Amino acid sequence: MAQLTQNEITKRYQARESFSGENLANLDLANQSFSGIDLSEADLSGADLRNADLTEANLNDANLTGANLSGATLQRTYLVGSNLTDTNLEEANLRGAFLSGSLLCGTNFRRADLRRATLGCPKCEVPGPFGSLTSFENADLEEAIFGEIKLKGIVLLGANFKGTYLYEVDLSEAVYREADLEGAITKKGRN
Fold first, then answer.
1. Could you tell me the pTM of the whole model?
2. How would you classify residue 183: left for phi > 0, otherwise alpha for psi between -120 and 50, otherwise beta?
């Protein structure tokens, strides 16, 4: 599939057209708005989406490998089954986002706002213990939902877990302090 040009992207966004399955790899899309747009199954690998507005966008099954979404707004965005390997989401706003089934390997969520976000993947396994660390350092996970996941090679230091629901979560190979989990609600997980 041919890659879209910047001009084509702007025209299609203004017409509110879908980008489902499109090749947007390695493009500079920083500071642009894709609010409410369908980007499902799109290839956004290596794309620069710094400070982009992706509020309520559909990024289900999208490839975001190596993309830079630092400072981006992804409120109530669907990222179900997306590949977030080595994706930078530092200081991104993912409030109420749906990340169930997403591949988190080397993903950077430092200082991100994940309040009321939903994360979980019963069949996902990060390759190799502590290979590519995913970091939630100093992230706000208040009232987030983690369901059926083994947090292997995950750094949770300084994260806010107040009211976070940990359902069937295995923390045996995560890096955290007991104080970090203060206020979390657990069910059957090992922590």
1. 0.91
2. left
